[in-house]
């Protein structure tokens, strides 16, 4: 029996609560089952050096986990003096994903920074972060009230998929993710176009048939996530 008594291709209960931070231009708390992530989007009138003079905007992200987001307390990375490789890989993924959803030229000379802070982790923190970050980014863009800034905006979300006990499953929780034979993260648009696929044979090789089944299940779930985003954004 899966958590929340769901089927193999069913998402955990998903909640998107917008405007949870009074100061950020855009914010949302995203929940995939017991996984909870606070996402804020901040806007600054500057861009990285490689974009100066090009009239383009930028979208970037930072990711972190609160010390007691997991079963045992983890030290703050700031206390260690450096970010882990996992943290850097995840925040780069979030930034890449969100840049694929916008027209950077339409943003103007601005940087949109998405801070994704994991409050509670039960699997799928990176995919929950991406799904919530899209909502926070759109809210921030709207707050500027600049004509044309939403040009080229593409709904985008992410979900984890895997093979557990020989069965393709969508939206893995921690218990499933830690024992999965295959672990895959899928980022895609609401209309089914793929942005990024991260897939690994953890304990067992997989064939093309399994890959296709994981993509089909993941894309169907992302359609549901896009609908949830659209309901929140209006």
TrEMBL record:
GO terms for biological process: rRNA 3'-end processing; rRNA catabolic process; tRNA processing. Its EC number is 2.7.7.56. Keywords: Nucleotidyltransferase, RNA-binding, rRNA processing, Transferase, tRNA processing, tRNA-binding. Homohexameric ring arranged as a trimer of dimers. Phosphorolytic 3'-5' exoribonuclease that plays an important role in tRNA 3'-end maturation. Removes nucleotide residues following the 3'-CCA terminus of tRNAs; can also add nucleotides to the ends of RNA molecules by using nucleoside diphosphates as substrates, but this may not be physiologically important. Probably plays a role in initiation of 16S rRNA degradation (leading to ribosome degradation) during starvation. Belongs to the RNase PH family. This is Ribonuclease PH. The lineage of its organism: Bacteria, Pseudomonadati, Myxococcota, Myxococcia, Myxococcales.
